[in-house]
């Protein structure tokens, strides 16, 4: 059975019934709130360029609660992901989880694997109502992982947090950044995760923003190798596998499933079960530690600032958000690709490497033979 391969956390099956791509115009599937940029790790790829201490203008507890209230006001309230930096560096994070859950927001968190994530902290998060905990594993060995994370012992801490989450019956997700440093360990990492009781492996393909450098990313043809490995593991592993910032994995999955794009499928929006085609600004939004509103954490184009601007209004009406949700605005080969409705290429990577968020995905080798716009060969 083919498992879900949706970009972004978490799985679509956990969303409210009836959620479809048509809802993207009014509500995001997932809202990321970067509660702080403070973090004790020194990760080489860090989007946030995290710092040791909290920012003096970071939204305080009261303002953070107001933000969560606003997010709960979407026509279809999104899944909330508390991220950072390291969310556990905020003393009030447990209260924020409890407040979000009380508003009806299904809430996940991505803490850094440090000593702050104690057994007691994991239990407190579970008690507060956290839906899922996600930590990173970026290598199949301590040497490979720790060199990427910048702190010795972080590999072991990840394993310990996984153990504590399982003991607390808190669903666990593992996030992995694929880049030059671990491309050769995809199979090893997939096998390592077996037996730890995780529910999902989220595989992020590097976008060169923050500390992430363009030369760290793998070559476009290597994506196809990685996709093949992930596809094979999705058939046999006990956990689900999805990608982040690699929407062309959906094209790969559809091709392997025998699905063929055509007028009937395109009209109905039919894809594999659970695949609704999220992308930067399309079903996804990001709010920074000081209230800045972006299409995603990997596309730092400012569209508004909370509390001056409402995240609901920005998501629904910002010209950039609206253009990112319109496949007819995509340029180059992505604009003529038969998979543009469900893939569209990573808009964040296009922006990072070309300066234009609507340009073609730089790291995709696929070229459609027929334009879905005109029916002409291209």
Detailed description of the structure:
By secondary structure, the chain is α/β, with parallel strands linked by helices. The chain has one domain: Aldolase class I (TIM Barrel, Alpha-Beta Barrel), CATH 3.20.20.70. It has 13 helices and 10 strands. Helix 6 links the parallel strand 5 and strand 6. 51% of the residues are buried.
Summary tags:
31% helix; TIM Barrel; disordered C terminus; 10-stranded mixed beta sheet; alpha/beta; disordered N terminus
Annotate the secondary structure layout.
Elements (H helix, E strand, L loop, with lengths): L29 E5 L26 H11 L7 E5 L9 H10 L4 E3 L9 H10 L3 E5 L5 H8 L4 H14 L4 E7 L7 H7 L7 E6 L14 H17 L3 E5 L3 H10 L5 H6 L15 E4 L4 E3 L9 E2 L5 H7 L1 H6 L7 H4 L11 H8 L24
Parallel strand pairs: 1-2, 1-8, 2-3, 3-4, 4-5, 5-6, 6-7
Antiparallel strand pairs: 8-9, 9-10
What order do the strands of the largest sheet run in, or round the barrel if closed?
Answer: 7-6-5-4-3-2-1-8-9-10
Reported for the largest beta sheet, the result is: 10 strands, mixed
Number of strands: 10
User: Can you write the helix and strand succession as a string?
Assistant: EHEHEHEHHEHEHEHHEEEHHHH
Percent of residues in beta strands? 5-15%
Structural class: alpha/beta
Question: Briefly, what is this?
Answer:
With 378 residues, this protein is of the alpha/beta class.
């Amino acid at each position: 059975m083919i498992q879900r391969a949706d970009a972004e956390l978490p799985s679509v099956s956990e969303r409210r019934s009836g959620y479809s791509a048509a809802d993207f115009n009014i509500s995001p599937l997932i809202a990321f709130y970067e509660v702080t940029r403070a973090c004790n790790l020194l990760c080489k790829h860090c989007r946030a360029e995290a710092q040791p201490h909290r920012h003096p203008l970071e939204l305080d507890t009261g303002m953070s609660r107001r933000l969560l209230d606003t997010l709960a006001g979407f026509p279809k309230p999104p899944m909330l992901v508390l991220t950072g930096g390291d969310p556990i560096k905020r003393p009030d994070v447990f209260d924020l989880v409890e407040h979000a859950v009380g508003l009806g927001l299904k809430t996940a968190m991505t803490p850094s694997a440090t000593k702050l994530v104690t057994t007691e902290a994991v239990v407190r998060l579970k008690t507060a109502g956290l839906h899922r905990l996600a930590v990173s594993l970026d290598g199949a060995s301590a040497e490979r992982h720790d060199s990427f994370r910048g702190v010795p012992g972080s590999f072991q801490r990840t394993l310990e947090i996984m153990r504590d989450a399982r003991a607390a019956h808190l669903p666990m997700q593992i996030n992995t950044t694929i880049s030059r440093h671990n491309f050769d360990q995809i199979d090893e990492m997939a096998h390592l995760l077996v037996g730890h009781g995780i529910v999902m492996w989220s595989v992020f393909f590097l976008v060169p923003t923050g500390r992430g450098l363009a030369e760290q990313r793998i070559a476009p043809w290597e994506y196809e190798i990685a996709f093949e490995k992930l596809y094979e593991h999705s058939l046999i592993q006990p956990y689900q596998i999805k990608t982040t910032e690699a929407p062309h994995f959906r094209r790969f999955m559809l091709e392997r499933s025998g699905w063929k794009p055509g007028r009937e499928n395109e009209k109905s929006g039919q894809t594999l079960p659970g695949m609704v085609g999220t992308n930067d600004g399309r079903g996804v939004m990001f709010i920074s530690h000081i209230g800045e509103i972006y299409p995603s954490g990997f596309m730092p184009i400012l569209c508004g600032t909370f509390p001056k601007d409402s995240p609901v209004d920005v998501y629904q009406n910002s010209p950039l958000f609206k253009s990112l949700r319109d496949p007819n605005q995509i340029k180059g080969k992505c604009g003529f690709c038969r998979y543009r409705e469900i893939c569209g290429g990573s808009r964040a990577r296009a922006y990072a490497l070309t300066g234009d968020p609507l340009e073609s995905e730089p790291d995709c080798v696929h070229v459609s033979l027929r334009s879905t716009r005109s029916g002409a060969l291209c």
